[in-house]
């Protein structure tokens, strides 16, 4: 049963509706999802949903915000001594979920930003942050001599974002995730100056070296 509409329960009720909405949209996509579907997932009546959201578009905007915030909270290794390759491998592993429906929904949301001003404003701001944060991190790596200084940090940050979203598309279109991950590692290693004396205690030591060997054999 949905909580009553009192101040202390309103936000909790909205959160539950949004979570249920995302679950349904993962399965059916945004276009095929109806408010009836979401109401059934929660075992409530459709009018109960309209107490919190005027329509599906309002609900999807809130869902999009939550979905994008989840990506913003991705946890990757931190600290000046962490190998930059390890950081970007962890980023790939956490962001390229094996769930194809999740990526499909995200692209549907991307497309909606063209016609939905509120969602566009929110998404544009998140994209700015999504470029600025890695650009700052790359600049710090350049100061330590861990990243090539031939290209400016913002260019590399945009390249990473574009590359990753391109890999999302390839994953949706049938390219195996393992291959994408392998190529991602090789690209990262090509852009970063990986020390030849990389220590075996590094969590990604074996991954980097095995991937390099495998790709050399393929060549």
From TrEMBL:
Residues of the DNA-binding region: 34-53
The organism's place on the tree of life at top rank: Archaea
An example molecular function term from Gene Ontology annotations: transcription cis-regulatory region binding
Keyword annotations: DNA-binding, Transcription, Transcription regulation
Domain HTH tetR-type: 11-71
Matching InterPro entries: DNA-bd_HTH_TetR-type_CS (IPR023772), Homeodomain-like_sf (IPR009057), HTH-type_TetR-like_transc_reg (IPR050109), HTH_TetR (IPR001647), Tet_transcr_reg_TetR-rel_C_sf (IPR036271)
Signal peptide: none
Protein name: Transcriptional regulator, TetR family
Organism per entry: Methanolacinia petrolearia (strain DSM 11571 / OCM 486 / SEBR 4847)
Organism lineage string: Archaea, Methanobacteriati, Methanobacteriota, Stenosarchaea group, Methanomicrobia
């Amino acid at each position: 049963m949905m909580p009553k509409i009192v101040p202390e329960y309103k936000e909790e009720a909205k959160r539950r509706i949004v979570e249920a909405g995302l679950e349904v949209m993962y399965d059916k996509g945004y276009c095929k999802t109806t408010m009836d579907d979401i109401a059934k997932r929660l075992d409530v009546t459709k009018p109960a949903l309209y107490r919190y959201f005027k329509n599906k578009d309002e609900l999807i905007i809130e869902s999009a915000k939550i979905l994008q915030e989840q990506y913003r909270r991705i946890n990757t290794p931190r600290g000046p001594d962490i190998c930059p390759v390890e950081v970007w491998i962890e980023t790939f592993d956490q962001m390229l979920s094996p769930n194809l429906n999740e990526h499909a929904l995200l692209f549907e949301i991307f497309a909606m930003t063209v016609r939905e001003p509120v969602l566009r404003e929110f998404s544009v701001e998140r994209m700015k942050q999504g470029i600025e944060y890695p650009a700052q991190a790359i600049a710090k790596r350049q100061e330590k001599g861990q990243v090539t200084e031939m290209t400016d940090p913002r260019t590399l940050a945009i390249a990473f974002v574009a590359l990753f979203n391109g890999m999302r598309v390839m994953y949706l279109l049938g390219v195996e995730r393992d291959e994408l991950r392998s190529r991602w590692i090789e690209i990262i290693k090509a852009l970063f100056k990986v020390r030849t004396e990389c220590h075996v205690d590094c969590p990604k030591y074996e991954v980097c070296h095995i991937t390099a060997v495998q790709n050399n054999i393929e060549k």
